[in-house]
Amino acid sequence: MYQDRENQKESVSQKVFLFVGIAMALIYFVFGFWLLISKTPVFNLSSNNKLILGSVFILYSLYRGYIIYKRYFKKSKFIKED
């Protein structure tokens, strides 16, 4: 009984971390894309700096997405099913 509650708490916390991770990856991607396509001056950055910063945000969002995929969605090839 106690073990079941502990597993349930882990499951809830994993779902929260998954949701937050996906949300942050999307936020980073949207912000990076916005920096790349925006014509208005943002934070007094030159167009080259906006290009660099936007690219860094997009690359970081892809990295976070990969980590989330690897941690929560990729099945291990070493687990045997009986």
Compact overview of the structure:
The protein has 82 residues and is mostly helical. It is built from 2 helices and no strands.
Mind explaining what this structure looks like?
This protein is mainly α and 82 residues long. The protein has one domain (2-73). It has 2 helices and no strands. Helix 1 runs antiparallel to helix 2.
Question: Which characteristics define this entry?
Answer:
elongated, mainly alpha, single chain, 77% helix
Write the layout of secondary structure elements.
Elements: H1 2-37, H2 47-73
Helix pairs in contact: 1-2
Beta content comes to: under 5%
SS field, number of helical segments: 2
Low-pLDDT runs of 5+ residues are none
| Radius of gyration, whole Å | 19 Å
Shape: elongated
For the record, the count of structural domains works out to 1
Write down how many β-strands occur, each being a DSSP E stretch of 2 or more residues. 0
Largest sheet: none
* Overall pLDDT confidence: 86
Supply the helix-strand structural class. mainly alpha
End-to-end Cα distance:
25 Å
- SSE arrangement, N to C: HH
Q: In percent, how helical is the residue content?
A: over 70%
